[in-house]
Amino acid sequence: MESGRQSNQQVRGASSPSVVVIGAGIAGLAAARALHDAAFQVVLLESRPRIGGRVYTDFSFGFPVDMGASWLHGVCNENPLAPLIGRLGLPLYRTSGDNSVLYDHDLESYALFDKDGQQVPQELVTKVGEAFESILEETEKVREENKEDMSILQAISIVLERRSDLRQEGLAHKVLQWYLCRMEGWFAADANTISLKSWDQEELLSGGHGLMVRGYCSVINTLAKGLDIRRGHRVTKVARLYNGVRVTVENGTTFVADAAVIAVPLGVLKANSIKFEPRLPEWKEAAIAELGIGTENKIALHFGKVFWPNVEFLGVVASTSYACSYFLNLHKATGHPVLVYMPAGQLAHDIEKMSDEAAANFAFMQLKQILPDASEPIQYIVSHWATDANSLGSYSYDTVGKPHDLYERLRIPIDNLFFAGEATSIRFPGTVHGAYSTGVMAAEDCRMRVSERFGELDLFQPAMGDESISVSVPLLISRM
């Protein structure tokens, strides 16, 4: 850190409005892109040495592996990202139909095993999956009967007390726990912390889930093209001035502009690592404090050869959801011999305390339990979303007893500060397209607010080159 060397950088030009965007994840990039295209002076400040945030395509195996977000949730033209992905000609591999939260993979694409390496018969997987669906439908009644919120886990146990026909014994109980473990993966949180009132309030787009076969990096790089991005610029303070903002970076450099877009992860806001002057209003601080941030990590194992069945998902069933696990088989979608172990919630936090080598070994031992002939991986990559100072979590979710409209409260602008990111999307929280759409929205709100002051509204183009809306390119989807 350079001490004593302070430089003040005016983003402002006399003739055109200016904005500082904080955070070069997909929301910050979308906002910066839209404002840049609307003739704003834009500087994008990013604390990491790379852009993309929680969207991160790693090339250390010699081919792309997404270690953060990797799916397009809702492969349809209504998805805000569809026009961009379509124009780039990026192939998607569809891993499921529309039955999303429950199975974000089709049931026939699973191979489940118990800890003794015995494969669970497919009929049982299907039967228990249907029972789990019925259990979740029954929790609706529990929700209606109770004014007070409770966890989804508590609601499930109430249902199972009432409905002996839905209870599972022996191996079927372990398969049920595995479904619960998959649900916890969807929310990146343990079922005893997920809100019964709000767990199903997000909007699910049609078209199922598409894995980005070549990784999300092209989307990130396309949005970033031609933008003034300052990497390694960790913001410590955002001050609202009489007619603008002053943003201070760790080394003392300040940036002055007409407005700022705050597009940092919820975990970073929770940690108060950015000081706001004056303080944010109480209702905004409460939204930051009360929204949940979950953790799901990835441990990618690269093998010399394929020794596993040709299914999308390998699962390990056990008597608790904590002891269950699952592997995404990238070979089926990409042709590369890679399995990605995906722990969530408390298990993810416990594994983050390990060294990378120990974590990779832990994942491999899970695999060896079900496939005794597994050969050692030749390479591995381990993510650390909860302990990485630039994310401090994976994505947001609804915690018990807190209202679903917290996402919207987090999004609402304060004067000339605009907020974006997956945790500000009431419609699509926890998703890449949710983050992207809030970036576009923050840019539009900012454009209107600042342009009013400049009194030149008609000078500016609509945010986001609107050709993206009229030109619809069909998505490239495969299914093996």
From TrEMBL:
One GO process term, biological-process aspect: polyamine catabolic process
Entry keywords, A to Z: Oxidoreductase
Entry's Gene Ontology cellular component terms: peroxisome
Amine oxidase domain location: 26-446
Cofactor: FAD
The keyword Oxidoreductase belongs to this UniProt entry's keyword annotation: yes
Gene3D superfamilies associated with the record: 3.90.660.10, FAD/NAD(P)-binding domain (3.50.50.60)
SUPFAM superfamilies, per database record: FAD-linked reductases, C-terminal domain (SSF54373), FAD/NAD(P)-binding domain (SSF51905)
Pathway named in the protein's UniProt entry: Amine and polyamine degradation; spermine degradation
Binding site for substrate: Y341
GO molecular function terms listed in the Swiss-Prot or TrEMBL record: polyamine oxidase activity
Keyword Protein transport: no
Protein residues bound to FAD: V235
Similarity remark: Belongs to the flavin monoamine oxidase family.
Protein name, UniProt field: Amine oxidase domain-containing protein
Organism: Aristolochia fimbriata (White veined hardy Dutchman's pipe vine)
Lineage of the organism: Eukaryota, Viridiplantae, Streptophyta, Embryophyta, Tracheophyta
